[in-house]
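Box S2. Input/output pair 1.
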Amino acid sequence: MADKRLFVLDTNVLMHDPTALFRFQEHDIYLPMVVLEELDNNKKGHSEVARNARQASRFMDELMVNISTETIAHGIPLTQGSLSNSSKIPSGNLFFQTETLEASLPSSLPGSKSDNTILGTALALKTQQPERSVTLVSKDTNMRIKAAILGIHSEDYRNDQVLEDVELLYRGMSEISDDFWEQHSKEMHSWQEEGRTFYRLSGPGVDEWYPNQFIQQSDEEAGFQAIVRNVVDGDAIIETTRDFASQNHNVWGITARNREQNFALNLLMDPEIDFVTLVGQAGTGKTLLTLAAGLAQTLDEQRYAEIIMTRVTVSVGEDIGFLPGTEEEKMTPWMGALMDNLEVLTQSEHNSDWERAATNDLLNKRIKIRSLNFMRGRTFLNKFIIIDEAQNLTSKQMKTLITRAGPGTKMICLGNIAQIDTPYLTETNSGLTYVVDRFKEWEHSGHMTLLRGERSRLADFASEML
């Protein structure tokens, strides 16, 4: 019993991840009564938080079936929960607060506040059960700071973290050494299909590549760039990339300004790749490249019926309040990036005002703006879907969106994981980080991290110095 830890859960943990109840393996979980009150206060509405609050309550309701009052007092086994058939079956117990626990909080922390009531409960449990390790788990940084001041051991909820360090995130590109061809030339075969050059090779390091990962020599001037098409039993098939830096191969008038942009366009223009993630700082060209590829494949090649663009409506400053109009009109203020990039893509000194107006009218019919709030239950057929600011999505929201894709649909997620505006999300548990890591081994997905800003010398200097 002594080695079984007791975790006191803050409400925000369950509202962030309802399955947290089943994520503590052999350890026990304690829920203060005020946590149930807060879940009840947050259960109404269509937001992700409200859905999570309702799901957490449903999980607890399932655990309470045919449970006696005596069993509740001694702990409800978590083995009978909805996730009990998963690979890691929790063997701990769930305890509810069934009596008032007295704890001496400092006078500066009144017990009427919910956070301080939870702190008081954790402090009382620590005093009541000195033989056990009592830990408060909270997503709230200030809550953890107050717990440390009171001498309560506290931790962040880390089960949903994809990586320990964001620096380990897959970048979509690998550099090969200068002696690469010497090491791999013995069993190498090359051929051409429809004007494309392929190589089959084996040797050291090949089995560490991922499908649709780009490889290039460390010397950028050397010029060799390829994409990994397949890796089976230590053998890899690679294909030389298309050169979108040349004006002859421009995409809707846009050319790649650096190697990462060229790699991104290779992914965006490939019909065999259904899911693309582009990560990079502001000004690296994520939205512009994606829109150019979408327009080229929707209007010129007729590969997709229309472009659908959406994003998370998280304000940087104060909220501007409710907006009148249709769904598209309500989303317009959030789509400044779309409008700015469309202006770049449609401007031409040779076009008259009438031609520009006709172009804009055509684009308005083929580019639709949609809200994330109305995505549940929908299926998109033959659509080119762009999810902007994807770093502000949770892993569950990302799953909800990606599973909307029907046959013939391509989905692109754009974002900067260093610029997260959603509470309780970090670089290591963002939905964008989650899908980059989970999709890297799938043969119909691709990822690229864009490194260089291409906006202006002012923007580049500001990104570096401010």
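Box S3. Input/output pair 2.
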Amino acid sequence: MQSLLRQITGPSRARLPVLDVGQGSTVAVFLHQTDGDGLCGWWPFAAWLTAHVHVRAVLVDLCGYGNADCPPSSFAEDQKAQVALAVQHARTAATRRVVLVGASMGGALALGSATAVHADAVVDLSGPADWTNAKAGPAARLLRVPCLIAVSPRDPDASYTDLKAAFATIPASPKKFVSGDGGHGWDLLSDTTAPLATTVAHWIAGTYT
């Protein structure tokens, strides 16, 4: 498996670590949740994904997490600008599709950033519906690309009811809403033999089932 760890530079000398794994013209940009060590929490699923599907995965540390180095600035406070920088890194001459995949905080940012960064599809795992500057309701109504949302009904850190209501307003097709098994964020994908892991892999690859 080919992987490469590097840093991308943003405004005000901010530096965000990114890990590129696998190869392919479809690139999944993985946005982490608040617990764990930034991008490292995505490694088990990204390693499994790129071993089974011909895609490239880009894992990124956002400011304030992992090994990101972000001096105080407007960029350091603007998570959607950081997502845009990661997507810019993901787009190369060989890139044909970019999919935003986020867990918890990252799920809210994936949904909230998709339209602005011209993502080709979105996967939101347990994204809080009211995340600052990335609220699910307004973002959902603007979405014109395939969207998969998964959340557990009794998840205390994400509102199942609010996310389902936002999902109903998404004008994009196809779209899919999955009720989780009690896990939160990337924990929903901890068992790669479970149906949701396969569903997310297919969604990333562009097979919307």
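Caption for Box S3: The chain has seven helices and ten strands. The CA atoms of residues 101 and 123 lie 5 Å apart.
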